[in-house]
Amino acid sequence: MLISDTGVPEEHIKRDQWGGETMLRLSDGWCSALDRETFMCTIYENRPWICREFEMGSYECRDERAEFL
Hints:
Blueprint: E1 13-15, E2 21-23, H1 49-53, H2 59-68
Antiparallel strand pairs: 1-2
């Protein structure tokens, strides 16, 4: 869920029937802001809070990437 206004561009936001906002996921299940070639965030400066908390290079990050590489 997008909890605060971080400046995430509209094209990367999905709204549910109650108005809740989340990051848009594409048909492959990955975040729409993720560059599929570099695995880098294309909106890094405006990324949501949860992405700021999910430390790049952490064991959680490496585990998630390993499942899809």
